[in-house]
Design goal:
about 40% helix; alpha/beta; binds adenosine-5'-diphosphate; binds magnesium ion; Rossmann fold; seven-stranded mixed sheet; 13 helices
């Protein structure tokens, strides 16, 4: 199934919007961060799970919102799809209160609104709905006071689900994989972030760029790091996430790396990323 909308879809959504009055208000106590990059496989879900868990281990109360129909963040935290009754889909499409869709995880202080494949339909169903771009933001207002951070795992596309994520957020975090064509698509993502800023959410800012799957044995990885740092400057996190097998194994055990193998390089990296993230937010 192709979840990627045709080129120009987002632009047409935003140009046709009539929601100028429903711009997100900065009344939340939680800092809401969308983890976004329309490229698949760059580490969005891995970063959402493991940054979220490390923040919780460091004393923050964290809510994850799985906004990807593939549900990797949900399954990676051990949520059994067959037992999910209420999910992001019902919150967005059926006006179910988000409180009723939140589930605890095996990590204390880490909670999740899970996703199922049904969410793929929301991309289309939302098109004709009232306030279609701001439904997630409105829903989150009900629980923002209960958390210090909300991390939204966006799908690998630039359709209405991602627009909902960006419209709900104060900040965007962009994972970039240390691979060939690392920056491919990033300028399109930046243009779309600007469109959301202008049309829906003027407070939105790029919080950080996080380099993932770094392989110290290749000069390619080092080249990508240099290139991204040159392009994004200090927006780039100092912490770089290494490519490690343990990080790719942890989801099949339904655990974040911090619980699965706390001494591993991946756990150390995400712990350090969480510290750096908290420092950037004046909390460490
Ligand atoms: N640092 C890493 N080292 C090794 N494998 C990783 C790492 N980060 C992610 N992966 C694996 O790469 C794949 C894509 O990562 P994922 O986080 O699902 O990307 P996205 O959410 O952007 O599609 C997954 O199989 C994941 O387990
Ligand atoms: Mg993902």
């Amino acid at each position: 199934m192709c979840l990627t909308p045709p080129a120009g879809f987002l632009q047409s959504v935003l140009v046709n919007t009539t929601e100028a009055a429903s711009v997100a208000e900065p009344t939340h106590s939680a800092r809401i961060v969308a983890v976004a990059n329309q490229k698949g496989g760059v580490g969005k879900s891995t970063t959402t799970i493991n940054l979220g868990a490390s923040l919780a281990f460091q004393g923050e109360r964290v809510l994850l919102v799985d906004l990807d129909p593939q549900g990797n963040t949900s399954s990676g935290l051990g949520i059994d799809r067959s037992t999910i009754e209420l999910s992001t889909y019902e919150v967005l499409v059926d006006d179910v209160g988000i409180d009723d869709a939140i589930e605890p995880t095996s990590v204390r202080d880490l909670f999740i609104v899970p996703a199922t494949i049904e969410l793929a339909g929301a991309e289309i169903e939302l098109v004709s709905m009232f306030s279609r771009e701001t439904r997630l933001g409105s829903a989150l207002k009900a629980v923002a006071d209960d958390y210090s951070f909300v991390l939204i795992d966006c799908p690998p596309s630039l359709g209405l689900l991602t627009v909902n994520g960006l419209a709900a957020a104060h900040e965007v975090m962009i994972p970039i994989q240390c691979e060939y064509y690392a920056l491919e698509g990033v300028s399109q993502l930046m243009r779309n972030i600007q469109l959301v800023q202008h049309n829906l959410n003027p407070q939105l800012e790029v919080e950080g760029v996080i380099l993932t799957m770094f392989d110290g044995r290749t000069t390619l990885s080092a080249d990508v790091v240099a290139q991204v740092r040159e392009h994004f400057g200090d927006t780039t996190y100092r912490t770089v996430i290494p490519r490690t097998v343990r990080l790719s194994e942890a989801p099949s055990y339904g655990e974040p790396i911090e619980a699965f193998d706390p001494m591993s390089r991946g756990a150390i990296a995400y712990r350090e990323l969480a510290r750096e993230f908290r420092r950037r937010h004046g909390r460490a």
